[in-house]
Amino acid sequence: MNATRWDVLLTGARLATFAEDAPFGLIDDGALAIAGDRIAWVGRRTELDTVDHPSAVETIDLGGALVTPGLIDCHTHLVFGGQRAREFDMRLHGASYETIARAGGGIVSTVTATRAASEDELLASASARARALLADGVTTLEIKSGYGLTLDDERKMLRVARRLGEELGITVRTSFLGLHTVPPEFRERRAAYLAEVCDHWLPALAEAGLIDAVDAFCERIAFTAEETRRLFERATALNLPVKLHAEQLSDQGGAALVAEFGGLSADHLEHLDEAGIEAMASAGTVAVLLPGAFYALRETKLPPVDGLRAAGVPLAVATDCNPGTSPLLSLRLAAGMACTLFRLTPEEALRGITVHAARALRLVDRGTLAAGQRADLAVWNVREPAELCYWIGGTLLRQRWVGGRRAG
Ligand code: NIG
Ligand code: FE
């Protein structure tokens, strides 16, 4: 107990700690102390009488409300221009995501809209979407570039992501996704595009401090495993961690590739095979499941959850919020969909949006309720942790705490 005073003591809390050895790490009739931006103490309220502790400036009785770590959305494309409701309509009339992409729609149509938007316009639209995620308990967000696809437009997107973190007072981790698709002006010059991204944009944007991790879309409509490898070699030389959109529409061996580079995560994974699972398990690469994209594309091939579970691969869940395949603005709903569509247990799904999501972003200071962790909390109007996955929609969040302060 290092703090000389506690700023806040929360009592009457059902603490889903994801740290204790109980389902959900649950502590009933719990208490949680905050000093500065950190959690100073966590335990049963009755234990407080048996330990020496500083007095608290303020004590708040939560009346039995559930408290979880602040939620962490570890895969989003939150910054973009326009929307793609027309493609939604086209898919409902029978067109596939791949057909639309090959006909110049898909990612490229959002690239056009994103290039046309100013930094302030992108900030305003992304901010509205981010606020929806925050209203459902999020306190940490990952945001990818990948809709600019020129050096200036990728820089613009990453700057917006950084500004969003400042404006909303939350942590935003950025991922550079220059290899999202080949932009139209390079269509006949793939090799030149790859060289541009790997040899010029990546080092320049890294130098500007705009990149926390490097991502790519490894897929038959995007980039091959060999092209992705070249990017990962450059990223590794710059000391940047890598992650990958892997095995979403087909098996390209992407998960094994990102694992070979000690990657943070392989994301999507519907077409993942046994070799990919083993590679991820030995590298400690997190599997990020994205049920929003599965749902919106009316996908039928399920990610191999049983195999991942059996191999001990940590499972995270994220919204993949993007205008094409997952216009999803609730991480809690993503967790619920991971249960209903992918058969995760509510505990697995909730670990997937807290402790395992933190791991996918290599953030060791959050994702559980434990002394020394950042005091990022969500206080809910429900008592059972599983209710967070069970209710579809509705306003369940009562309070959000970020870095030890009430944030909403
Ligand atoms: O994660 N798979 C690639 N990227 C996005 C989709 C982007 C888009 O269609 O605009 C995804 O699903
Ligand atoms: Fe994505």
TrEMBL record:
Binding site for N-formimidoyl-L-glutamate: 147, 322, 324
Binding site for Zn(2+): 75, 77, 245, 320
Principal place of residence: cytoplasm
Keyword Metal-binding: yes
Keyword entries, A-Z: Cytoplasm, Histidine metabolism, Hydrolase, Iron, Metal-binding, Zinc
Protein location: Cytoplasm
Assigned EC number: 3.5.2.7
GO molecular function, one term: imidazolonepropionase activity
CDD domains: Imidazolone-5PH
Ligase listed as a keyword: no
Residues the entry annotates as binding Fe(3+): 75, 77, 245, 320
Residue intervals of the Amidohydrolase-related domain: 66-382
Catalyses which reaction(s): 4-imidazolone-5-propanoate + H2O = N-formimidoyl-L-glutamate
Involved pathway(s): Amino-acid degradation; L-histidine degradation into L-glutamate; N-formimidoyl-L-glutamate from L-histidine: step 3/3
Enzyme class: hydrolase
Cofactor info, note text: Binds 1 zinc or iron ion per subunit.
CC cofactor: Zn(2+); Fe(3+)
Binding site for 4-imidazolone-5-propanoate: 84, 147, 180, 248, 325
InterPro entries tied to this protein: Amidohydro-rel, HutI, Metal-dep_hydrolase_composite, Metal_Hydrolase
NCBIfam families: hutI
Stated role: Catalyzes the hydrolytic cleavage of the carbon-nitrogen bond in imidazolone-5-propanoate to yield N-formimidoyl-L-glutamate. It is the third step in the universal histidine degradation pathway.
Family to which this protein belongs: Belongs to the metallo-dependent hydrolases superfamily. HutI family.
Listed name of the protein: Imidazolonepropionase
Source organism of the structure: Dyella lutea
